[in-house]
Batch of 3 targets.
Target 1
Amino acid sequence: MFSTKTLSSLKGMLPPIHQPLPLNQREAQQLLNTLTASFRKNLDREHGWLNDERPTANNDSSEAGTLHPYLRDPYRRPTDRHLRAILSNPLFSYDRSAQQPSPGRSSERDPMDVFNEAVAKGLMTPRGAAGCLLAKRREIVQSPTLSIRQTMAASSAGLRVVQWLRASGLERDLSFITYPMLTVPLLKFMVIEGLDEIAWGWLERLLQGEGPQSMVMHQSPASLVLDSLVRAKSDGASSLNDAYAFILRGEDMFGSTSAFGANFLTTWRHLSWLSTVHAWRRASPSKTLFESFVSVGERLRKPLQIDRAHLDLHHPTRPSHTLAVKFLQNEAMWQRFLHKASPASSARNDGQVANPSAFALRLTSMGLDTVQYLTRNGQSEEAQWVLDLLRTNFSSYFSRYPPNFTEAVTSS
């Protein structure tokens, strides 16, 4: 019985497929370094730098105080950013054993821990992410924290969801924006965490025709993003200056497009409401930003006379009652308003009467602000005339429809 030759005995019969390079250890290391550098340069050339230019000392120093750490990290090469994003993604970094509560602590889990585990298992969806963000915010609001905004910023919940959107590919086509239950709370966290530049990038892509273009809650996706950004910036802020700056930036991005009016009306009117009805909650805004914000409203096609009249009363340096008094003297306006508020025109199908509209509360607020302004400036007779006018027209109205301020603010 003959023994079978081993494969090694055939090596001498076959010519080598690849000839070994005649390099010593130092030369081999130099070749490896050259190939590595060439590979990185090609990736940098294909994918570009973070700001389309190589970082300089001046750029780094000027941006250090404004950019979120996630956007200004020292790993600015595309390869470094790519690897860092992979390693920081919950899909690879989640450690279930490290998240187990200690015996002495409550067994209730952090909503973002639930989020990380679902991402690691590949089970996360936009609806699930929305639920985790809402639960996290509710947890923060109900906690004994002294600052809800600071606690939200420290949670990094928005950053984790953004990382998941990128890793899952949902950010690539912006399809998640059509789910407002996720978009609205996500942008709230992102703005507070200093990640709003990412959202502005989404808005720019939407305006360029990328991503979904169908209406979402009677808004275009671009309008939804802009509205969520402005509301997040104004919510709980001590001043509206930053919110004004946001809407002015949005105006520059939309430019003279035909969609300007449709995309700006809801956002502008909401900020107008905060600037007047809720003006007492915040410090007086910048004169320049306030006037620029008012000028945006002049580009909107829908009549906004009451907004403009009320805003004039709240000008930070030159308040004026002229437009407000003129608006209140308009008998045709009162007739239209009272006719729409009559039981015949406002009754619902179930026989119940609708609550007072935001217009009614806005009209009341502007009237009382006018009385206060006239009284403060020694025009007591004019102030009494306005007060009598409000009493005459609203006495029966509010007796029939008790004001619901929560509903009015929601609809504003």
Target 2
Amino acid sequence: MQLVLVRHALPERVDGAAGGVADPPLTPLGLEQAHRVVDAVGPEVEALYSSPMARARATAAPLAAALGVEPVLVDDLREYDADAAHYVPVHEMPVVDPAGWQRIVDGLLPEGVDVAEFTGRVAAALERIIADHPGRGTVVVVAHAGVVNCWLAHLLGIDRPLAFPLDYTGISRVLAVRDGRRLVRTVNEIAHVADLLTRTAGSD
């Protein structure tokens, strides 16, 4: 089967969540990016999964409407910063958080994140999705740059967990072969939103 991994679209910035956890919606530009995913993915989709975080669910919504399905929410696809009270879109980080930005440039998760635990959680969730779809169909997963990056790095044996620059609604494709092989076909396809992108690298 083919697993199509979609990073969420551009979210709002949150400088301090009233409830203690920042879970921002998409910006108007992000909503436009999300609608572009529909044609980029196409109609031949067997199932749609999403992180339960608002920015991922909103990105999945136009595709879900086009397919006439409800996305399956998978808690283990939450981003590593799911419990943070602040959310800064990564392209603003060089000014707002230079140290955090440097870690992203270096391909590293923030200090305090257990890379092995996070990667293990994400990999297990994606492998469960693969096991539930043993045929030759296409399954779409809408999640986060950290989620996608860590799994791709795991599959490719790359030490840096944030090895790839992933743009908003960038699409990566992995073929899951029945013999257990996982073949990374593409990383960060962006032709569908090339005119809408705020160029970013790493994760958020």
Target 3
Amino acid sequence: MAAKKTVVITGASGLLGRAVADKFIGEKDEVISLAHTRADRDPHYTKLDLMDKEAVEGFFGTHKVDVVVHCAAERRPDVAQADPEKAAKINVAVPAHLAELARQKGFQLIYISTDYVFNGRNAPYEVDAQPDPLQSYGQQKYQGEQAVLAVRPSGAKITVLRVPVLYGRTEYNAESAINILRNVVEDQSGKTYKMDARQVRTPTNVEDIARVLYDASHFEQPLPAILHYASPAPMLTKWDMTRIIAKHLKLPIDHITKDTTEPSGATPRPENTQLSNKALEELGIETREETSFEDWWAAYLKE
């Protein structure tokens, strides 16, 4: 049985953060779930502004922590593209500060990064592949990776976990670039939509990522600098995902057109950023998915 740990989860009110907290709590670790604005209305969260360096240092000065799972980020590519300076504060400066605190305090830091650090032209990507992000979001997450890994040679226990596009149980569908497709399917008002059929993705359930994070954080040997986790299932386009969701909603999608053209003026998105799970598998960490994409949606939409 794995030793119980005190685990801090940043961004714990978000889609991934909630799943991670649930997993660690279910395994009987002591969990401190950090949030900012949502902490004002939910006492389960500990309120902390990660961009307030003094407050963050004060928190870690008064809490003995074993692991920090850093889920907090500005994850929306269009938002990061529109205001990169603001997004960089959470995507670059915050993880850099946490890495320095990991060095000082001795806790393990797992930094959640993205497949968007790659340009999408050379998939599948191993952990040692050279990043080449196409847009501000990917650039910032890569800069965050560089910042945290720069502290690692000092002996700090720091690992980057890159993950792809996520889905799962949302508080509102816009929390996920996949769950939001349900809104498009359900909009039977007469409005028309185009749905991308070029970019292939590996939609990955947040509960599977939470399991991998738990196993990694309780791994008995030091972790490598970078790990990847993505669903091992066949890749899908947004058009594929939309059809699956519509099938289980039993709704027509005559108002949605399959789009194979490259969007002009939009935030650039890589066409294929499939991540290889080889590094995790070599550690013996389970990389299966508990439920397939279609089976998960079939069950979820019946609730």
